[in-house]
């Protein structure tokens, strides 16, 4: 057997660091945008009437910066660590990696600029002429599909970028020999799915399909973007980092198989559940509902598998291993999300909670409570290795965790309750004002929950800044340093 | 197969994705393949034209500058631009465009949404929406006057004290009685929503369409 290649030959640590910085910058932007929208709803918006700071446009910055700015950048950075170390082969080309890095930042930034500035420049004769001649929605700014708002002139570039990402990481996976580890199943599928999903959602409803059918495809797109891009990359990373940090293998390989294939089969079948009670044919809606309930059972097997891996060491690990605490908190939130999903997808729940803040709470639980927490855990683990020195302050790491997880949990409970109230206000045919006024206590609470989460991020950023500035020496052999707790300074 | 590269690439990656696309996407496409998508010109009707003319009378100078004469062609152009404004400003993130058959929605807004209502250029991509901070708008046309909409877009709190809706002063040249092109377009678009229904408008029939 040949020797295992050296870490330095496999992993480009510099690009991971850059990806993480970009990810955190976009997360900051996204949170500021979310705060602006939250303030608008409680009548405190300090920028009211300023065109380029319109909450309607910044609401789209909030969601797009999270999906394409924070999650995509953080995932790409982490993939540069995990894929070469799992396959023993470096990425296809380091030059390509750097090209993708800069291209992706340009894509995300132009999306943001397009969404904010586009609508102001929209009224051009040539654009209306194009729209009239080709009967196409020529929007310089956002397009009318959630998470597909990326302006039409960026879509092809983004697609090309995703194809290059797939090639860059598929080459080392293809070169690897022997059985593939679970993580690589998820990654491989994710590269295929992300590209196909993005192409489907950003091309078909705009250019090829109209009306109700486009609604069905739009539902599939917003669903697949979470289910086939974010979810497999997230779980793939859990299958990679959890055994490393616990220094033991995954509990059951059989359950890993059930989890992957169950998710791959059932997850994409559910798109239409975002548009229940629309004119989309009812039998298709039933199909989406049933497969949504089915995937909840699959998720249960995955979560059982991970808690089996943790075994009886939960107490000790929770207090002493911060990345593990992030990961398992995320998994508990994931289980809650999916359990909630199996209930709220039923037509009975939909009557009440569709269109309400319940759904917004659900979305925050999965995007922040699960995937963002996981990525915070991974960053907490990897930054000391990338920088070759321990965190400046363990206490600030703790603040980051508790403010993020605590703030998110408050926001989730708060918005879920708000949704129930709104649903009943509407169904009881009260004046519309009753529902928006009745939401005020919940919306005010949400502002503070969001501020807590933002505070957590500020702790993390300050901690990172001070770590970068601190003069401590490099830990030898950064890439091979052992498990999570050791690089954190012991509690003061 | 379950752990091999080709199994995961072809079956899970491409196969299952296509299967779901077939079930969730191709089936409705086949079911509605005979439906013809209407153009913006084709969806201009007497009711929205009445509102468009009303805008021309109410704001003559602004209207002339923006769209010239209130012709059907100009109305189609206003609808296209109005829809682009509606999408670009993110209106659809707080307002839905479909009435569900549950939760008393048809009593609040009117007839339950039908597929035929969405077969036109202005619903591409379809603007069902996923959140209602404000009310559904698919039956909004004709319910309120153009002047109400102008004041409301300019500063919602002037007509709806507790409204959390943002103000859109950039649809106007300084005051609500001076809407610009975007302002007239978005008002026309909102007045068009639901105007295709025979029961339009629910409480105030326009003289032009009484024999319709």
Coarse shape of chain A:
globular
- The third-level CATH topology of the largest domain in chain A is Cytochrome C Oxidase, Chain A
Terminal-residue CA separation of chain B: 65 Å
What is the typical, i.e. mean, pLDDT of chain A? Answer: 92
Summary of the model, kept short:
With 492 residues, chain A is mostly helical.
List the helices and strands and how they pair.
The complex is a heterodimer of chains A (492) and B (212).
Chain A: H1 7-10, H2 13-41, H3 55-87, H4 94-121, H5 125-134, H6 155-175, H7 182-208, H8 211-246, H9 253-266, H10 282-310, H11 314-320, H12 322-344, H13 347-353, H14 357-387, H15 394-427, H16 432-438, H17 440-469
Helix pairs in contact in A: 2-3, 2-4, 2-17, 3-4, 3-6, 3-8, 3-14, 4-6, 6-7, 7-8, 7-9, 8-14, 9-10, 10-12, 11-12, 12-14, 14-15, 15-16, 15-17
Chain B: H1 5-31, H2 40-43, H3 46-58, H4 60-67, H5 72-88, H6 105-109, H7 146-154, H8 181-192
Helix pairs in contact in B: 3-4, 3-8, 5-8, 7-8
What can you see in these coordinates?
- The complex is a heterodimer of chains A (492) and B (212).
- Chain A has helices at residues 7-10, 13-41, 55-87, 94-121, 125-134, 155-175, 182-208, 211-246, 253-266, 282-310, 314-320, 322-344, 347-353, 357-387, 394-427, 432-438, 440-469.
- By secondary structure, chain A is mainly alpha-helical.
- Chain A folds into 3 domains: 7-178, Cytochrome c oxidase-like, subunit I domain (Cytochrome C Oxidase, Chain A); 182-291; 332-492, no CATH class.
- Chain A is globular and about 70 Å long.
- The relative contact order of chain A is 0.09.
- Chain B folds into 2 domains: 1-34, no CATH class; 38-209, Cytochrome Bc1 Complex, Chain D, domain 2 (Orthogonal Bundle).
- The mean pLDDT of chain B is 92.
- Chains A and B meet through helix 3, helix 4, helix 5, helix 7 and helix 8 of A and helix 1, helix 5 and helix 6 of B.
């Amino acid at each position: 057997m040949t020797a295992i290649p050296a870490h330095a030959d496999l992993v480009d640590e510099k690009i991971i660091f850059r990806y993480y910085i970009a990810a955190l910058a976009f997360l900051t932007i996204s949170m500021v945008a979310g705060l602006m929208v939250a303030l608008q709803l409680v009548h405190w918006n300090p920028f009211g009437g300023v065109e380029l700071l319109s909450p309607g446009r910044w609401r789209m910055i909030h969601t797009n910066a999270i999906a394409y700015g924070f999650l995509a950048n953080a995932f790409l950075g982490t993939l540069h660590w995990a894929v070469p170390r799992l396959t023993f082969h470096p990425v296809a080309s380091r030059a390509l990696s750097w090209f993708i890095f800069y291209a992706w930042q340009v894509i995300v930034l132009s999306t943001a600029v397009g969404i904010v500035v586009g609508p102001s420049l929209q009224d051009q004769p040539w654009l209306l002429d194009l729209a009239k001649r080709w009967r196409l929605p020529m929007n310089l700014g956002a397009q009318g599909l959630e998470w597909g708002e990326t302006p039409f002139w960026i879509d092809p570039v983004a697609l090309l970028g995703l194809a290059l990402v797939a090639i860059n990481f598929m080459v080392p996976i293809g070169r690897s020999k022997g059985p593939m580890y679970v993580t690589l199943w998820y990654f491989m599928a994710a590269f295929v799915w992300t590209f196909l999903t993005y192409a489907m959602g950003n091309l078909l409803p705009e250019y090829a399909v109209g009306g109700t059918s486009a609604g069905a495809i739009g539902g599939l797109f917003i669903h697949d973007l979470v289910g086939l891009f974010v979810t497999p990359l997230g779980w793939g990373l859990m299958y990679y980092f959890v055994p490393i940090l616990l220094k033991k293998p995954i509990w059951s390989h059989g359950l890993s198989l059930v989890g992957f294939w169950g998710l791959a089969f059932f997850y994409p079948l559910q798109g239409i559940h975002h548009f229940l009670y629309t004119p989309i044919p009812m039998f298709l809606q039933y199909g989406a509902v049933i497969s949504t309930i089915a995937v909840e059972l699959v998720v249960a097997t995955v979560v059982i598998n991970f808690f089996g891996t943790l075994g009886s060491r939960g107490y000790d690990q929770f207090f002493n291993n911060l990345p593990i605490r992030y990961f398992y908190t995320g998994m508990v939130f994931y289980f809650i999300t999916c359990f909630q999903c199996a209930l709220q997808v039923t037509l009975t729940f939909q009557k009440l909670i569709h269109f309400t803040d319940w759904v917004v709470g659900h979305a925050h639980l999965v995007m922040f409570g699960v995937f963002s927490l996981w990525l915070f855990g991974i960053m907490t683990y990897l930054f000391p290795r990338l920088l070759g020195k321990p965190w400046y302050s363990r206490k600030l790491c703790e603040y980051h965790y508790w403010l993020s997880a605590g703030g998110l949990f408050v926001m989730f409970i708060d918005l879920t309750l708000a949704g129930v109230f709104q649903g009943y206000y509407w169904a009881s045919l009260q004046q519309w004002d009753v529902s928006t006024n009745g939401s005020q206590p919940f919306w005010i609470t949400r502002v503070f929950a969001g501020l807590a989460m933002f505070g957590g991020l500020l702790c993390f950023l300050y901690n990172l800044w001070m770590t970068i500035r601190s003069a401590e020496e490099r830990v030898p052999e950064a890439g091979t340093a052992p498990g999570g707790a050791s690089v954190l300074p012991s509690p003061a | 197969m379950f752990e091999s590269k080709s199994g995961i690439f072809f079956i899970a990656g491409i196969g299952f994705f296509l299967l779901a696309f077939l079930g969730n996407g191709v089936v409705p496409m086949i079911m509605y393949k005979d439906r013809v998508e209407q153009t913006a010109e084709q969806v201009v009707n007497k009711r929205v034209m009445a509102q468009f003319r009303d805008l021309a009378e109410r704001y003559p100078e602004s209207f002339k500058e923006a769209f010239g004469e209130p012709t059907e062609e100009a109305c189609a152009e206003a609808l296209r631009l109005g829809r682009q404004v509606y999408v670009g400003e993110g209106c659809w993130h707080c307002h839905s465009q479909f009435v569900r058959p549950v939760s008393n929605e048809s009593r609040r807004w009117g007839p339950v949404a039908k597929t035929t209502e969405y077969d036109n250029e202005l619903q591409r991509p379809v603007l069902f929406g996923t959140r209602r901070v404000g009310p559904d708008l698919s039956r909004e046309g004709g319910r309120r006057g153009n002047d109400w909409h102008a004041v409301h877009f300019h500063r919602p709190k002037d007509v709806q004290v507790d409204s959390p809706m943002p103000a859109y002063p950039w649809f106007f040249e300084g005051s609500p009685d001076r809407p610009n092109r975007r302002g007239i377009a978005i008002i026309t678009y909102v007045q068009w929503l639901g105007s295709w229904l025979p029961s339009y408008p629910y409480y105030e029939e326009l003289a032009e369409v009484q024999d319709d």
